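Chain A, query sequence.
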Amino acid sequence: MARFRHILLIILAMALALGAAGPASAGDSPTVLTLMSHDSFAVGKETLAAFEKEHGVTLTLLKSGDAGAAVNQAILSKKNPLADVFFGVDNTFMSRALKADIFEPYASPRLADIPDELKLDPSQRLLPVDFGDVCLNYDKAWFAQQQLAPPQGLLDLIQPAYKSLTVVQNPATSSPGLAFLMTTVGSLGESGYQDFWKQMRVNDVYVTAGWSDAYYGQFTRAKGGTRPIIVSYASSPPAEVHYSETPLSEAPTAAVLSPGAAFRQIEFVGILKGTKHPELARKLVDFMLSPAFQQDIPLNMWVFPAVQGAPLPEVFTKYTQQAREPVLLTPEAIEAGREQWIETWTDIVLR
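Chain A, predicted structure.
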């Protein structure tokens, strides 16, 4: 009997030891936190590694197409979310995401460092991370060689001298294409934008599915490109300098930032409802608004950090400008008009 009791005590001690060791063993494998985004999300590996190390977490990136496709996928999977945090909802799709109720509110303490004009969601379910201006870019050397004045605004594009010079992206498939369509709506009005696009068709506007097709295929800066005017970003000229194989003393392209010629695109981050790691998700949102992440944005995603005073690289301060009077449409106005604008544009330009 004594031997039996001794064996029981050993078994009990082993069970207690295993029970105590259980959580520690589980802790040896870091928690996996998933960040869902559009395909253009980019940040330095060292930056993400710093977050992982600080919080003992493994961060998985789930890139899910362009902004519209990624938002739709997040909405369709709301009952069984694919990620913990979503980055890349912009102001053109913001109302759709909020209406679908896929995000949890979170008032990050770092919101205090962000200008009020970028905070478009009073419910604090979507927090601004970056912004950029979608606008016309032109090839400076081409216009100099042709002795033609470069465009200064939207209406220049429909003049006879600019026939067959412009390439744009389809707003049904491209985020900058949609932003440019909204530029014309906001600047020219409901009837004015339709007349503009009718004249753009007469003036032989070229349409591509996406930005890459346009910039690296049709723009005169690309090999074989024949169009010296393109819809791109105000930050594209410094990117040309940064990625040039030979050092440049000035940007070979320029952005058209006259009043009403650019659309202010703002990108947001939000915590997806149903996350199994809400505290870590909040830490990730805080991190994306921190100085370490914000200063990493310009040379990776080629947009401006949302946090006021975040340092900018020299190539940004030297070769890029922000639009002083960009087109600003409320998320509610965009939600109400977006599908009809796209349908009308398609009827006018493609059919």
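The domain at 30-131+265-319 is CATH 3.40.190.10 (D-Maltodextrin-Binding Protein; domain 2). Residues 175-202 form the longest helix (28 residues).
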